[in-house]
Description:
elongated, 0% strand, mainly alpha
Amino acid sequence: MxxxxxxxxxxxxxxxxxxxxAPATAGQPQSNDKPRGLLGDAWxxxxxxxxFWISATLILIFLLMAAFPSxxxxxxxxxxxLSRSLDKPSANGWFGYDVQGRDVYARVIYGARASxxxxxxSVLGTLLIGxxxxxIAGYRGGxxxxxxxxxxxxxxxxxxxxxxxxxxxxxxxSGSGNSKAQIMGLxxxxxxxxxxxxxxxxxxxxxxxxxxxxxxxxxxxxGAGTGRIILKHxxxxxxxxxxxxxxxxxxxxxGAEATxxxxxxxxxSPVVSWGIMISDGQNFVRVAPGLVFFPAxxxxxxxxxxxxxxxxxxxALDPKLR
Length: 322
């Protein structure tokens, strides 16, 4: 008894199996789309989100303010005239003048540089140190993991504000005579020291969940070295949580810098930052509320922009949230 499946395959001499499929594809455009990776899918999803474009536009404006403040405010942000002390907003000074006769609008614009530079450098340092420690602890395991985890627990147990006050009061107290760069460097160092354990735990958990994947086991079986496995396979597949957390952390560090400067232990004059402006204007809030309102408004907008961008990136990189 003949098999009907084989009978259908056998055709008359001279006939080709592909002849029947040719008319179906004739006239149809050939798809040249390459398969997208994680970042490609994330970018495709981000382009459809209005929240992403709003937050990205605001962040771009703040970055331009930090890089080229003279384009937004040609006035002097450091020197002022006492004859204009506490003058109301006008055409000459859009946000008015502070108690020393300095242009508040110019100071708000120039204050973005210190706040954003401190936040971005602190985030980069935190991601570098915490990410490196997390990769080593998660990949090596054993006593290395136990040792690094206990060191992280020690720093993780330090209260953030109290630890920053202790560090900055010790090295940046009154009469220290530090320069602008030294003051900013101390604030950046304090933020990194108190924040890297969170990144270390995040990277460690990602590495532990990834290092036993099939492609890692296959690369190890093919003789790939530790450095190649980490840089070629582990790191690209563990960066997504760090990108999300790092974006949100920029906004958090902007707020942390303003908090420390408001308390008098962070950035100090002659550095211009939003936290310093809020601290200087709190005593005159009833007479000139703009001294507190305008820098606070810029501060809140910057923090919310980075937080919204981080949330958009998190939703785009997490397939479960799409």
